[in-house]
Amino acid sequence: MGIKAALPRYELYLYTAVLGGALIWASSWIFEASSDNVNRKAFKESVKPGWHYFGRKMDVADFEWMMWFSTFRNHILFALAGHVIFAKIFTLVAPKHRSLIFGVYGGLAVLITMGWTFMALVLSHCIILYSVALVKRKWMCFVAGLTTLASIKLEPYNSWQESLVTGSFDLQDILFYGGCGFSIIRGMSFALENCEKKDGNYKFSDLLKYNFYLPFFFFGPIMTFDLFHAQANNTQLTRKEREMWNITTKALLHLGVILVVDVFFHYLYILTIPSDMKLVTKLSDWCLAGLAYSNLVYDWVKAAVMFGVINTVSTLDHLDPPQPPKCITMLYVFAETHFDRGINDWLCKYVYDYIGGDHDKIFKELLATFCTFAITTLWLGPCELVYIWSFFNCFGLNFELWVAKFFSLPPFSTIEGAMGEAMSRRIRGVFNAANFWAIILYNVLSLNSLEFAKMVGRRLIFKGFPLSTLSVLFVTYCGVQLVKERERQQALLEEPEPAKPAEGDKEKAE
Prior knowledge:
single chain; 510 residues; mainly alpha; two-stranded antiparallel sheet; 22 helices; globular; acyltransferase activity; MBOAT_fam
């Protein structure tokens, strides 16, 4: 049935009221658990004094968030501000060479921050991938790239390479693995795009300018080489109407979201509570469901803000970077689930879509998802938790196709064709609600722990059945229908207006 199937307005009002009430109810449980256990011994390391005028402690369990917006905020702002100033000056003075300036400034910043041994290591990765790119065999590019990536993800090779980097500061591990990992992925993109180049080869300097673009170097997002090369070497630098206003608005929005998240961390300890399994066992089913959902929402917010800050800088450089990931609240199918749109675009272009084609064949889809998640597992770092996460997400993606194929056969397709579009949308919403919680459970284990994910699943599916199970599913169903309504309205806005009949045709019809 089409996406434009409408539901009665009063029904949507009911769904909105139910969802809003459930979110407030679950938040109250989390707030109560946070307030009652603020001085708990297990919270000592991750709940610290917050803003003094709130008079409450703050959840600081996420090192990455604190690194970006508290501990190393000034260092990151200084590096990005320097990039913006130099890029703007040379864009005005020598627009033809701005991509060179991007690479030189980024290379110097990396050299000063990490030292010459790290720079030599990254350059060695670039040389390997560039040499293989000249052969113009895609399978060789994948072998060389994945082997190089494995060398920084698997023992003892990663420890040996890390020992080459001198110095010791708090961010060294993160910058080392982030810089090396993203460099290799960018190098693979360069090599694969070089295989597609019909006449000649790209220069080694093109790879260096692409790789050492500072805003993307350590933390991403990944922008495929073909897009970066075309945009960074574009000399026709013009702004769209109100583009600077939009950039400023987005920057202020990101600042507002950062402040809102920090305020929430004073009242809802959503990151610390799941780490204390003794406390988790005492919480209500609604509190557990709220914790699982809020952890995924927070992870999306974090990715959207961090990539949003970087994207703001790159947009000032006249680039069109990958957009932030789709909000977890809007997801009810595995096919759209991702938390890093850059990596997702890279995997889709070079692996998933390349092997899977139109994603309509069961075997090709199975092969495509297996290869995609095999590379994702290597990218995240092979371990038991990542294996489990990859298996379940790979299964979920294929299971969606199997179910869609099964229900497209008679008599199911005949029954659905006979019922109204609104009823079809409601029935599909029930399945989507169950799928939504499968997405949450399959992904919360990578954000918190396997034990927490098992506890949430056990309480909501088995111990909480039927009251908790059905009530949570109903609330989720309400949310899914509201998402579908938003998609319906968006589809109506994007639908082109029907062409008016020509005068001659009108007279002929009369």
